[in-house]
Amino acid sequence: MATVATLLLLMPLLGFLSVLLLGRYMSEKQVGVVGTGVVAASFVLAVITFFMLIHHSSREVTVNLFSWISVGTLHVPAAMLVDPLSITMCLFVTGISALIHLYSTGYMHGEKDFRKFFLYLNLFVFSMLLLVLANNLVLTFVGWEGVGLCSYWLVSYYFDRDSAASAGKKAFIYNRVGDVGMLIAMFLLFSRLHTLTYLTIFERSGTLTPMIATLVVLALLLAATGKSAQIPLFNWLPDAMEGPTPVSALIHAATMVTAGVYLLVRMSPVLALSHSGRMTIAVIGGVTAFVAATIATSQKDIKKVLAFSTISQIGYMVLAVGVGAYGAAIFLMIAHAFFKALLFLGSGSVIHSLNGEQDMRKMGGLQKYLPLTFPTFLIGWLAISGIPPFAGFWSKGDVLTNVFEHNKALWALGVLTAILTAYYMSRLFILTFRGTERFRAETEGHDPHESPWVMTTPLVVLAALTVVGGILDLPWVHHDSLAGFLAPTFGYVAAGGHADTVAQYGLALVDVAAALFGLLAAYSIWRNISESKRWESPFLEHVWHWDDFYDATIGRPLTEAARFGDDVIEPEVIDGAITGLAVSVRRSAEGLRKVQSGFVRHYALATVLGLAVVIVFLVARVG
Amino acid sequence: MNVPAAWYLVLAAGLFGIGAFGLLTRRSALIMFMCIELMLNAVNLTFVTFSRTLNDISGQAIVFFVMVVAAAEVTVGLGIVVAVFRRRSSTSVDELSEMKG
Amino acid sequence: MHSSWWLTFLLVVPLVGAIGAALTRKREGRAYAVAIAASVLELALSLVVAFLYNDHVAKAQTFDFATRHVLSAPFGLAYDVAIDGISLLMVVLTALTVLLALLGARDRRQEPAFVAWLLLLTCFTMGSFLSHDLLEFFIFFELTLIPCYFIISQWGGKERSKAALKFFIYTFTGSAFLLIGILYLAFAHQHQLPGSALTFSYSALSATAMSHGTAVWLFIAFAIAFAVKAPIWPLHTWSPLTYAEAPTAGSIEMSALLAKLGTYGLLRFAVGLFPLALVSMRPVILTLAVIGILYGSMLACTTPDLKRFVAYSSLAQMGFITLGVMSGSTIATVGAVLLMFNHGVITIGFFLIIGFIEKRRGSILIKDFKGLQGPAPIMAALFTVVMLASIGLPGLSGFVSEYLILIGTFATHSWWAVVATFGVVAAALYLLWAYQRVFHGKAEGANAEMADATTHEQWVLVPVILLIVVLGVFPKPVLDRITPSVQQLIHHVAPAGVNK
Amino acid sequence: MIGAAYSIPSVLVFVTSAMLILVGAIGVISVKNPVHAALCLIMTLFGVAVAFVAQSADFLAAVQIIVYAGAIVVLFLFVIMFLGVDRREHIHFEPLVGQRAFAAVGVAITVGGLIALMARSHWVSGASSVTTKLSSGGGNVKELGTAVFTTYLFAFEATAALLIIAVVGAVLLARRESATQGEESA
Amino acid sequence: MKLVIPSIHYLAILPVLIFFGAALALVLASALARGKVPLGVATLTVIAAAAASIVANYFQWRCVAKAGASVTIAHAVVLDDFSVVASGVIALSVIMTALVAHDWAIRERVSGVEFHILALASASGALLMTQANDLIVIFLGLEILSIGLYVLVAFDRHRSTSSEAALKYFLLGGFASAIFIYGAALVYGATGSTNLSTISYFLGTNVLLHPGLLYAGGALLLVGFAFKIAAVPFHLWSPDVYQGAPTPVTGLMASIVKVGAFAALIRVLISALGTQLDTWRPILWILIVLTTLVGASLAVVQRNVKRMLAYSSINHAGFILLGVWAGTIRGTAATLFYVITYAPIVVATFAIVTLIGGVGDEHHSIERYQGLARRQPWLGAALAVLLLSQLGAPLTTGFYAKFAVLASVVDAGGGALALIALISAAIAAFFYLRWAMALYSDDGPEADRIVVPRATAVVIGFGVAVTLVFGIWPGPLVTLAQHATVLFTP
């Protein structure tokens, strides 16, 4: 298994290196084949690993590669932990990645930096696999940063657009703020437990004081908010939509942004030690889900809607983590990966067909021009809205059920969010595919065209997965499904009691009702676009002025401080003290020059005065 | 009994001071020389006085050398004054401040 | 114990190279060839030494290749060389730096004096790292000023004379404290052993007994000199001007190499000799280091030109190194030593690329550039790798060292480490912003026509990139060489402080 | 008081010499005409000679008169006349601001301090007669000669050098101008 | 009563005799030849005399090695290794100056004979000071040295500054001499003798309950010395005199006056007044602080290199005083080492300044040096090395000189003082470097190539060689200085 797992990890790296070193001798097509092929191979290997793990005696297999850092008491091996959680992640990461790679070969066709794109994508997959497979926090951090870097590169892929460049930088820096949390969590754990390997941490975590445990959990939460775009670090994600659409689908919807959730789930034994920490997680998740959903209702850019939707959905996952429903979180993560990738790719297809137009007000009536995109998108829409029997319904239901058991208020917020979700997704759907055609100016009169097969195939596959994804974890077969498979990973958590079946059905009904309410509301409002302006709040459109707030409280003061440092402190205070010293030497020298007047009598006088001082000293000394 | 040595020493110190003061306040190089001579005489007086109190001849011997030095200094000094005077037609040292700073 | 001849060769080769280069004729670039040959030989020698050193660690003696010859007994002047894992890394860095600086300065191949000064500087720097004697160290330490001074003042930018003077006098003043400190220590040692000869031997002096107050004063004296050299906030103000005005090779030598003399000295001498002072001085220096990190990062954001930018970013990096050096933790100290090397390599990369850009455009002002990634993607890519290493991206060299520093320091001095961790964010902020301003956007005018890196330039940067990647992925051989030496040092100073 | 402790003649001699010295000295520094200053200097020199005599240094007194008054001052006068600088110096006007005040203070402190220091040591603290005893009375020429040729033999030899160099120097300074003229005329 | 002429150890005073004899010979020759003694002959005479003196020094050294240090001529003269080394340095400086002056005299078309006579005579005064064991002998040596220099300073008939400088120097020098000899008188009164050995013995065997008189005398002596070595605030004459004097004379002054004055100062303070260390140390402390700082900072604002070097030499005087302050064997050795190394450097530096000064000896602005090293690399490099040596850069003797004095001061517990001095060195670095930078700047005036006459070239080469060779390998000089102080008498 070690070899297979290693290969699984290394395949994308192999792709990356071969494109990096040989890319200039390869045609675009070859690059596409290699790039996609390695990820597909990785997927196959992941499947193999999965089956091997199922038949393995232990559910936790550590694969040691080499000793990476070893100083004093700090030993960080480059080693993998193959367990249900990591292999689950691997499966869906490689699977979706493979599809999106395939899609990209079509979407990015003819781009100048086509090779570079695949370079980044492969590196991304490698980093993501490293993130999930690492057996210790440091190695996870490597992948964690790696995906962040690839995200930076891919967001600022169109670097000659200033907005893209800024967005990439913003993404990276918000992530970095989160990284501080991860680093501090590591520091705390290492200083108390003297290890950073997951399994050892879990073994020793009992010795952590509640205070430290809470700090660790909060630090991890900070890390998660950065990577998973939660409050307060969420607003890099919408900007990240500057990247090419496959990137948005893969990185900013399906995989990377869920890394934060993964981290929290991975550290669940530590989370178990701090109730207040978990509560904070749940609140952050719930509030983020709600806030992002409200914002999504007023966005004009199709990808931005999807971006806020992603934030909102991840909010659900974090909420699930907060209430200890790790299985539900992972379930939603996978389901979300399916339908959100589908929606993004669908939107990509739409945008592709409209020569890059992303403003929904300039779409409409695309239903008949995009025969394959439309139905797949429809599935995605219904899934995210929580309409049974699509994956979204089951996964969201799972989360809400768990939340209901722990905290009614958060559950209510979750349901409210569900209504909003259905509402804004329907708005998006209606504005895009239904209604009047408003795109002629963009297409210069031509009819929009459906995308090539490489792009539509992934759509179909994802749509299929979205349809059947729910069976991964149906509520009545918990033990043989995803949750059961993952359970050993969370073995350290005391599981909460399950609600009875009636209550579950009741909750499911509430979910469906919420979804339908949202759908109907959207339909009634957005049937006629011209009358619906008042339903778009500028406050929401500007993301609650969140960016402005940061700008005013952090950005601008810091810039001012830096300017002040550059203009005043550096030259006048610090260097000023030094140059001041030099100047004062010069000044006093100029003063002394006056003594050196050229008059011999002055010189003699100085001699006498000097003598007088010496004599006075001696008189004083004698007494 | 002779007056105490202290009197002469104070006298010599006074003479030395007068010489020094003259050196500081007079502008004529010649008079400044004279002031130096005054100071040297004060020294001589001191030597002789100590010679008496210490009952030691060497103090007087030294006066000899001081006188020789004074003579030598005057010889060269006056030569320099003459040289300066030829160039500037003045013995005032206040006019010699070309170099300063 | 290996023969000390290896170390002597390390000293002699650049010296002979310098003389040879100085004596060759101008036109044909022969001096350059001589210099390249000498520095290649030097690098090879240093690698041999590094290789030989390996066996030695197993025997758990930390100083290798040692020899001591007293040159002048009344002065206590001695030729005393030895290396341990810490200096070993610096030796390799020294040899590497001069080779890359020379390769990067190929356009100066017509100037024998320039390459001669560079080699001379290498000789002196090498001497400082090899010295196992305080006076010898001081002499080499001071000597490095002279080649630097001439390199800056003759081949620098517009304000070169001001920069050169400021640099020289700043450092010279700093080392005044060092010299007095060294003398005081040596005499204190001599007075403790009546009848003994005056000696400046490191091993002898490290056994000097002293009161807490004395230790603090001496530590301060030493620290001032090294803080100026490093530079550590707030004694850094010479560095932006100097780095900006110096020719590229000079900036490389000064920031990649000479700055390390400061931190190396701080570790080896200030920390190593005055354990008693550490209890009270640690918080002070750690605070300065943290301020330096944040301050350097802040100013790097707004500074107008690229070399100053690197200067401020170096200030921040030096803060990290200082943090590690002063932390009293083995892990952090190992990280600091590693970061000395890594920062050296990274800075070489930065200055080389900036030099290439300057050569093309005659400017290093950030506002003069935009969108260079378009016309010069390879250059941009190279810059990116270096930048990412500087940001501390895992998998690249900068991360390992920074991480070790932070995690080690956290164990002993948590709050400083926490604040310093925000420096990690700041690094990303200023580096990415600078990158964006220079390489992103739409290139217009002269920017659009800028030539990409030539093959030669790419090859010059290959070692830098390789080192960045290799040390990021597989730092073990290096760490294994550093760790025992650091452990020994920390063990020596341990009674006075925390040891984790 | 004074008369009670010390013999009247010695006090008178002291007063005389002191008067001569001080009046002469003040004259030197205060008269406007250099010639008068030179004459005042002679007065001081006489005063010193008197003081010498009063302290059993008869031979030195003679030398003082001959060498100083006879040679040095004459040299001064000669130069004054030669240069024709017997004009008045405007001594009431002091071009250097504060010079006099500072000079007065500095000199006063110095001299006062010196006297204070001397008084602390009871005016003398050395050992008596390290070399040769000062024979009482005026007949100490022999001892003086002996001292000069024994204790201070080397100093005596050195004075020869000093005088020679002074002569060479003076000749050079004086001759130089003519040499220049010679060169210029040549 | 029989006159017992004291025994004379002629070897002890042989260098003085040689110098003075040579001077006399030149006087006679010039008188007999009616001023037509060729310059070359005069120069050769000086060199031969100085070389002979050095040979005599060698024999003296051996004599001391065999018989130990001794006093002679009624204890007035000392023969010890300290004086031997010091007089060797003086002789060497004289040779170097004579060579420079030779070329200078040719250029300025002056008769060099008088110059050489006076140089020899002055140097004999300095020699006297190094060997003197009696305040009166010191005084006479000082006067011989000074009177010769007064005339030398006034030597340049073309420049009014020359005679101005001479008059200033003379007036202040006379004043200082008077102060010095008054001090000698008071010390005589306090101890009963002017002989240093006797004073030392007296102070060693008697406890002065009221040392006021001794203090007063010591203070006056100290001020007299401080004037000669140009310690602040008694330094004011020196920039003017350095500037006004003909450049070779400046070089001579900077070297032999320092050697002579410091040798005598050490004998007085350490040998005679060593028991009063606690009293004169604070005074020296202040003097050193002022001297180093004022010297360095005033040099910074100068544009005339001769003035700059004057202030620089003031700064150096402060450093040399450090060794005296230490008051130990180590300090004395360091002082000696400092002057040994400083003399050739400063003479060689002034040799270059003489060259650049050009006909009339008037071009001493620093602008004149712009680009010198680009036009004449060897000359420029030589000056750069000399400047770096004065700066105290390692691998030059200047570094070890500073190191030695600082070490002695730190050893004697004067860390703060050493630090202040070193900081002044950092200030001083500013102008040395500015000058060195001017050499290498490429925007210099289009100046003619300066012809370096052979004799001057030898001097410059020698100075540079000494500073570099012993900078790398200071061992022999250190041992020399150390050895010289071990056999320091009394």
Quick rundown:
Chain C has helices at residues 5-23, 30-58, 85-104, 112-130, 134-143, 145-155, 160-192, 202-205, 212-229, 238-245, 248-273, 275-302, 306-327, 330-361, 377-391, 397-412, 414-439, 455-473, 476-493; strands spanning 64-72, 77-83.
What does this 3D model show about the protein?
The complex is a heteropentamer of chains A (623), B (101), C (500), D (186) and E (490). With 623 residues, chain A is mostly helical. Helices cover 72% and strands 3% of the residues of chain A. Chain A has helices at residues 2-22, 28-54, 84-107, 114-133, 137-155, 162-193, 198-204, 210-227, 236-239, 245-254, 259-266, 268-271, 275-296, 302-322, 326-353, 373-385, 391-406, 408-433, 440-443, 453-468, 482-486, 501-526, 538-541, 546-595, 600-622; strands at 61-71, 74-82. A two-stranded antiparallel ribbon of chain A has the order 1-2. In chain B, 77% of the residues lie in helices and 0% in strands. Chain B contains 3 helices and no strands. Chain B is mainly α and 101 residues long. Chain C has 500 residues and is mainly alpha-helical. Mean pLDDT of chain C is 86; it is low at 496-500. Chain D has 2 domains: 1-88 and 122-127, Four Helix Bundle (Hemerythrin (Met), subunit A) (Up-down Bundle), CATH 1.20.120; 140-186. Helix content of chain D is 74%, strand content 0%. Chain D has 7 helices and no strands. Chains in contact: A-B, A-C, A-D, A-E, B-D, B-E, C-E, D-E. At the B-D interface, α1, α2 and α3 of B face α2, α3, α4, α5 and α6 of D.
